[in-house]
UniProtKB/TrEMBL annotation:
<dbReference type="GO" id="GO:0008170">
    <property type="term" value="F:N-methyltransferase activity"/>
</dbReference>
<dbReference type="InterPro" id="IPR029063">
    <property type="entry name" value="SAM-dependent_MTases_sf"/>
</dbReference>
<dbReference type="InterPro" id="IPR002052">
    <property type="entry name" value="DNA_methylase_N6_adenine_CS"/>
</dbReference>
<dbReference type="GO" id="GO:0032259">
    <property type="term" value="P:methylation"/>
</dbReference>
<feature type="domain" description="DNA methylase N-4/N-6">
    <location>
        <begin position="110"/>
        <end position="257"/>
    </location>
</feature>
<protein>
    <recommendedName>
        <fullName>DNA methylase N-4/N-6 domain-containing protein</fullName>
    </recommendedName>
</protein>
<dbReference type="GO" id="GO:0003677">
    <property type="term" value="F:DNA binding"/>
</dbReference>
<keyword id="KW-0489">Methyltransferase</keyword>
<dbReference type="Pfam" id="PF01555">
    <property type="entry name" value="N6_N4_Mtase"/>
</dbReference>
<keyword id="KW-0808">Transferase</keyword>
<comment type="similarity">
    <text>Belongs to the N(4)/N(6)-methyltransferase family.</text>
</comment>
<dbReference type="InterPro" id="IPR002941">
    <property type="entry name" value="DNA_methylase_N4/N6"/>
</dbReference>
Length: 260
């Protein structure tokens, strides 16, 4: 009978980076090769989105990929990216493209980038109480509850409100991303937790759990901590920690398993 071959596994350093294995005269002893290094990609940065985003692409999206940024806005994420390395499809509401209803064929994209409004204040129907006068102002005006462009809920139910409006937007956009992504395609989602109606909402956990129901695998998570202090006005008593960090979530659309 032929002897069964021993299964081999990659050698990883303390950062989880695969290193070369140095052959040893003593077959019973395994020696790690490679070199000690600190220039690896980490999971947490005190920096801006445009500094962190290139690391995400370098780690998870190969050059030559076709990437749809469906909430492109002013293109902040792409400021430090060499666009010659990718085919970028930049769309948002200004170009008439809704991230919940994309104009792409099924299984046609290598990657999708999603960064919708992640504060319920941006999605209020009453403009006098709504938040967002900067880069998300256009999203606020379009997606806000009570506008004609707001899609109804599933099965014809009324549009979601408050924090539920935030997650509803992420969930619908996530389902649409699943449709347009190829097998092993990458979905990069920017989000932030929030306190709404004096209740803590861990939005990134809600997104991860919901996307798992669609079939996505949550492969990676990056924490981005702002470099300046957030201002707070009209606070009588603080009951929750002020959010000064956000997340990039990286999801994979797995290739279907073959049935034997």
């Amino acid at each position: 009978m032929a002897q069964s071959q021993q299964e081999t596994h990659p050698v990883l350093d303390i950062f989880g980076v695969e290193v070369a294995e140095t052959p040893s005269k003593n077959k019973s002893q395994r020696t790690q090769g490679g070199e000690t290094r600190s220039d690896v990609i980490f999971s947490s940065y005190q920096s801006g989105n445009s500094d962190v985003f290139p690391n995400i692409l370098a780690l998870h999206v190969p050059e030559g990929a076709t990437i749809a940024d469906v909430t492109y806005g002013k293109g902040v994420f792409w400021r430090n990216i060499n666009l010659d390395n990718y085919t970028l499809l930049a769309t948002d509401l200004a170009t008439g493209v809704d991230c919940r209803d994309l104009p792409y064929d099924d299984a046609s994209l290598d990657a999708v980038v999603l960064d919708p409004p992640y504060m319920e204040g941006l999605l209020r129907a009453n403009k006098t109480s709504s938040a967002g006068t900067g880069t998300h102002a256009g999203f606020r005006d379009y997606y806000s509850n009570g506008t004609e462009s707001t899609l109804p809920g599933d099965n014809g139910t009324p549009p979601s409100k408050w924090h539920a409006a935030v997650t509803d937007l992420y969930f619908r956009a996530g389902r649409e991303a699943w449709r347009v992504l190829k097998d092993n395609g990458v979905l990069i989602v920017k989000c932030q937790d929030e306190v709404s109606a004096n209740k803590q909402w861990l939005t990134h956990v809600e997104i991860i759990n919901e996307y798992a129901n669609y079939g996505f695998y949550a492969k990676d998570l990056f924490v981005v901590t702002r470099t300046n202090k957030a201002g707070i006005s009209r606070v009588k008593k603080q009951v929750h920690a002020r959010k000064n960090h956000s997340y990039f979530l990286v999801f994979i659309k797995p290739r279907p398993k073959r049935r034997h």
